[in-house]
From TrEMBL:
One of its GO terms (cellular component) is plasma membrane. The chain crosses the membrane at residues 16-37, 273-297, 317-346, 366-385, 416-435, 455-478, 510-532, 746-774, 802-828, 840-860. Belongs to the ABC-4 integral membrane protein family. It is a multi-pass membrane protein. It is found in: Cell membrane. The keyword Transmembrane applies. This is ABC transporter permease. Residues 21-217 form the MacB-like periplasmic core domain. The keyword Transmembrane applies. Pfam families: FtsX, MacB_PCD. It comes from Bifidobacterium margollesii. The lineage of its organism: Bacteria, Bacillati, Actinomycetota, Actinomycetes, Bifidobacteriales. Its main location: membrane.
Length: 877
């Protein structure tokens, strides 16, 4: 029997192609999603452990400690390198390399040229370096430094040149010799644009201590070699040497912890999220497969009748259909996995992800092969069960009769009851999850973090129940919706009237096809709405967390230097302002160390600040303060809405105190060195109310618009201040750009999802119309015989396809928007106020593409319908 089945598959290969395409699309999507998740986790792990170099272990705080108090924290952060006994660590068997992570900031000078320098410790083993030495060697001893390439360019020095270093920790200038150049290829220090390397003696001198052993350090990186058992012995030995509350941790464990912290406690949250849509794509494919096998059974009814006549049993026919489905699922799923691997391989090899700041690698594992194939085979077999029952439930005599044109079975009451219960339960679960997040947003349930995963599962389960309830009840509401739309369309002429009548003939099949389209469009609309909401929400949160793109400040900054920096390519706008440090007290009497900046007004400030300042004005009697502390994130409150400013170090209340009315806005990260950065009218500086301690240049950066890179902008701004040793340039935009890169990467997935939905919609509509043409062979022949032209018959099928696509598509857009908004609220309300946009562009494009796909899907069935002569069609029917 199986050989007969394979023979029938060969004869009906063309009919199996649509189902095979649906399976390939679904399994390719799942395989690509798993590969994307692997690549993203791999990238995040490499980014978060870039400072390791090639080290496979690190020394740091024991992360299992949960009872550390202030005294413990003081102890942890006051450890020096000698406390770790470095010589004993290097002597442990299995330790091939060791590098302590100490950091320093200094001002480098070459004649009258200056540059701010961020530096870390060097290592004898080049593999342990966190940055790449592009030229020369890594520092060893004797005051050697490997300068960051941009810093060397700013100073105008090369290998072998001498430079002078000055730091807050050193009592005098320090002489150093450049022995190499570095570049931060791994992105270990994005906030500083990279790092220079210092020899041990130079790091000690800059830190203001007598020798390297007294340099403060809390982290070290180890290269440990050997078999697993030997490595465990090595780690145990190292742990006994370390100071208390310090421990060895593997690089893999550190990477997993970092990724877990970035994803809110679930390392595979992105993969899981996308796999949910992959499962929905396979559900669409299952509906398409079911329709395909209905077409096959309809076409093979006479063949099946003959097989029954010569002795084939019902069980054999049943097994034959399932075997055919399983074989189709296996072959198509394997091709789908190959397609998924090829697509992700092409994306990673093209460098596309590197261009957006997230270089990815192809990281296949067993799940990429097993999960899609198993899922594809199982879904295909399940989808064919109904057709298998149909093939065995008719007698040979019945199978030889003409096919009925209309659906005669009535929809059961249990279906309606079950779908109603699902809808009610799903809506209740969604409402409960949203209420929990709202309660958390109001600050009334600080324990939500402990059961956030549960609340998220409730929301997902609620959406799934609502969705399944609508799919199950589609046989009730979708034909009625199509009837209403068709009644209007039927006024357009004979072809439209025929289409309106035909679409009511088989409500079950119409509901199945409409459900397939509904799933596809809902998928796209959900992702589009969720991505738009997420981008808008995170953009809003980022604008408050990183309010200013780039800042330069110092006590010896000049007007000419600020003017040069403002003209650097990529600097869109800037404010040059006087600054001073003052003390302010909140409503509880706590002191707030505040940096006060003088500006012309709030309109001037809006040019450089990413924050909603609303209708805030900065007059002579007002001060603009942030809503929250930059240190601990706690809200600021002031007595009677006023604040008294006193010079740093003064006790307050004196004649020099300045009292102003407070205006507040949500902005942060203007300067990480102060609890608050406030803005006043510049007249307070010119009138002598406030003493000018220095100046600050606040800049808004638009590197893309200027056709340059962030690193070039950063280097150009630093170069503008080479004449001043006391000017510091920092670029919070680097961190902000990393977050936006991740959001943009998620948005890029829309293209693939839309392609999946369109292809599945095309296959589903084509299958339904094919089956309709087969069932209506006699009807089409009769219409042709009484004068209906080929063009009118084609138009009737096209209108039928359009009705299916647009009505189901509109329902999918509405449903997807709701799901997208709920999903965004569940995820992004943790980060800020959620924005609920409706993506008209993507949703409109989806409906347009669905309509075009429907028209294309009607071409082949229409050709079949008009190709057969009326007399021959009547004879066959």
């Amino acid at each position: 029997m199986f050989s007969i089945t394979i023979g029938m598959m060969k004869r009906g290969a063309k009919m199996l192609v649509p189902a095979g395409i649906a399976i390939i699309i679904g399994t390719a999507f799942i395989a690509a999603t798993l590969l994307f998740g692997n690549a993203m986790n791999d990238t995040l792990k490499r980014m978060t452990t870039a400072q390791y170099g090639d080290a496979n272990y690190s020394i740091g705080f024991d992360t299992s400690i949960a009872d550390a108090d202030d005294a413990d924290m003081d102890y942890l952060y006051s450890r020096t390198i000698s406390d770790f006994h470095p010589e004993r660590l290097r002597a442990v068997e299995g330790v091939k390399g060791l590098r302590f992570e100490a950091r320093a900031e200094a001002v480098a000078a070459n004649g009258d040229r200056h540059a701010n320098m961020f530096a870390v410790t060097t290592s004898a083993e080049r593999g342990l370096l966190p940055v790449t030495v592009t030229q020369g060697i890594q520092p060893a001893a004797g005051g050697q430094v490997a300068l960051q390439e941009s810093t060397a360019k700013q100073l105008g020095v090369g290998i072998g040149d001498a430079i002078t270093l000055a730091s807050k920790g050193a009592s005098s200038d320090i002489q150093a010799r450049v022995v190499g150049l570095t570049r931060d290829d791994a992105g270990a220090y994005p906030y500083y644009g990279g790092a220079s390397l210092l020899s041990d003696d130079l790091m000690a001198a800059i830190s203001g201590v007598a020798d390297f052993g007294r340099v403060n350090a809390t982290t070290a990186y180890l290269d440990i070699d050997g078999e697993p058992a030997a490595m465990k012995t090595t780690i145990d030995t190292i742990n006994r040497i370390l100071p208390k509350r310090f421990a060895v941790q593997s690089r893999d464990k550190a990477a997993e912890d970092a990724v877990k912290s970035l994803s809110g406690g679930d390392t595979d949250i992105v993969t899981t999220f996308l796999l949910g849509f992959g499962a929905l794509a396979m559900l669409v494919a299952a509906l398409v497969i079911a329709n395909t096998f209905q077409v096959l059974v309809a076409q093979r009814r006479r063949t099946l009748a003959l097989l029954r006549t010569i002795g084939a049993g019902k069980g054999q026919l049943y097994a034959s259909v399932l075997f055919e489905a399983g074989l189709l699922g296996l072959v198509a799923s394997a091709l789908g996995v190959g397609l998924g691997l090829a697509l992700m391989g092409a994306v990673t090899a093209s460098g596309l992800t590197s261009s957006i700041g997230m270089p990815m690698r192809l990281v296949p594992d067993w799940r990429v092969f097993v999960v899609p194939i198993a899922f594809g085979v199982v879904m295909t077999v399940i989808a064919s069960l109904s057709s298998a029952r149909t093939a065995t439930s008719v007698t040979p005599l019945e199978a030889l009769r003409p096919i009925e044109l209309s659906e005669t079975r009535r929809t059961g009451v249990m279906r309606g009851v079950l779908s109603a219960l699902m809808l009610a339960a799903g809506l209740a679960m969604c409402a409960y999850a949203a209420w929990q997040m709202h309660w958390y947003g109001m600050g009334r349930d600080s324990m939500i973090a402990d059961h956030y995963s549960t609340v998220l599962v409730v929301a997902i389960g609620g959406c799934a129940l609502v969705f399944l309830g609508l799919i199950i009840s589609a046989v009730y509401w979708l034909p009625r919706a199509l009837y209403g739309a068709g009644a209007l369309v039927s006024l357009a002429g004979p072809s439209a009237k025929v289409a309106h009548a035909n679409i009511q003939k088989n409500p079950r099949r119409v509901a199945a096809t409409g459900a397939a389209l509904l799933i596809g469009v809902t998928l796209v609309s959900t992702i589009a709405t969720g991505a738009a909401s997420g981008k808008a929400t995170m953009s809003e949160a980022l604008t408050t967390r990183y309010s200013v793109d780039m800042i330069a400040s110092g006590d010896d900054m000049t007007d000419a230097q600020a003017a040069r920096a403002a003209k650097v390519k990529g600097v869109a706008s800037s404010i040059y302002a006087p600054i001073t440090t003052v003390n302010a007290k909140d409503a509880h009497g706590a002191n707030i160390t505040t940096l006060v900046v003088g500006v012309d007004g709030s309109n001037d400030l809006r040019k450089v600040m990413h924050a909603d300042l609303g209708g805030t004005t900065i007059g002579e009697g007002t001060i603009l303060m942030p809503e929250r502390s930059a240190f601990d994130g706690k809200d600021f409150a002031f007595t009677n809405g006023r604040v008294e400013l006193t010079a740093a170090g003064a006790t307050g209340g004196g004649k020099d105190a300045l009292t102003l009315d407070v205006r507040q806005a949500d902005y942060r990260r203007v300067s990480a060195d102060y609890a608050a950065v406030a803005f006043v009218n510049v007249r307070h500086f010119t009138d002598g109310d406030l003493k000018t301690d220095g100046h600050m240049l606040l800049m808004r950066i638009d590197a893309d618009g200027a056709g340059t890179t962030l690193n070039d902008v950063f280097t150009g701004v630093q170069s503008a201040f080479t004449d001043s040793a006391g000017v510091t340039v920092i670029g919070p935009i680097a961190e902000r750009a990393q977050w936006e890169t991740m959001i943009n990467a998620m948005m890029a997935l829309l293209v693939g999802l839309i392609a999946v939905a369109v292809l599945i919609a095309l296959v589903g509509v084509a299958n339904t119309l094919s089956l309709s043409v087969i069932e209506r062979t006699r009807e089409s022949a009769t219409l042709r015989a009484i004068g209906m032209t080929q063009g009118q018959l084609r138009r009737s099928l096209a209108i039928e396809a359009l009705l299916l696509a647009l009505v189901s598509g509109l329902a999918g857009v509405v449903l997807g928007a709701g799901f997208g908004w709920l999903g965004s609220y569940m995820v992004f309300s943790l980060y800020g106020t959620v924005v609920f946009p409706f993506d008209w562009t993507v949703n409109g494009a989806t409906l347009g593409i669905a309509a075009i796909a429907a028209l294309l899907a009607s071409v082949a069935p229409a050709r079949r319908a008009v190709k057969t002569p009326p007399v021959e069609a009547l004879a066959e029917a």
